[in-house]
UniProtKB/TrEMBL annotation:
Protein name: Synaptogyrin-2
Domain of life according to the entry: Eukaryota
Span of domain MARVEL: 1-144
Localization in the cell: Membrane
Pfam families: MARVEL
Main location (coarse class): membrane
Organism: Cuculus canorus
GO CC terms, sorted: neuromuscular junction; synaptic vesicle membrane
UniProt xrefs under PANTHER family: SYNAPTOGYRIN (PTHR10838), SYNAPTOGYRIN-2 LIKE PROTEIN-RELATED (PTHR10838:SF19)
TM region positions: 44-65, 77-101, 121-140
Signal sequence residues: 1-22
Amino acid sequence: LRPSLQVFALIVFACLVGEGYTNLSTSSKLFCVFNHNEDACRYGIGIGVLAFLACIFFFMVDIYFPQISNTTDRKYLVLADLTFSGLWTFLWFVGFCFLTNQWSWTPADHVRVGADSARAAITFSFFSIFSWGLLIAFAYKRYKMGVEDFAQSYVDPTPEVPTPYSSYPNISHDSYQQPPFTQTAEGPEGYQPP
């Protein structure tokens, strides 16, 4: 799923960078094809580039995930994937609504060249909403699977009393000797500690 998300993000920001800016025949000044709103083009390019880079990062995490032995690191990576996927699903939804709204207010005579690219950016931002939503489901499933595996495989060690070490030969454990340097009941001779 991640490679398809990379392609979707690449299409969105490539369409906006390539043909998202145009000019009128009477002027050389470039403007965004989405109702002359620079924020619409910047937003689409921004979330497209960041989504592309994040897909590369999480794809590498998916490849190396079985080799990560620390359960805490695995948990944080899965939670990061879950959180990022949720955030990007929301941002793609906002981007789709924003681009669609701005495109509906764009005068038809102002866009001659970038109309197909603008429609492609809107379409693939719409596809990205559902694709990132699927990533949420997969990340949540991976998180639940990790929690259940830990709960089932972890066994609390039993508090067994360890067997004593074998003693030195010919010495019994029954005899007890008086510790050295203790006072006996005999009369005090010489120096006495206070």
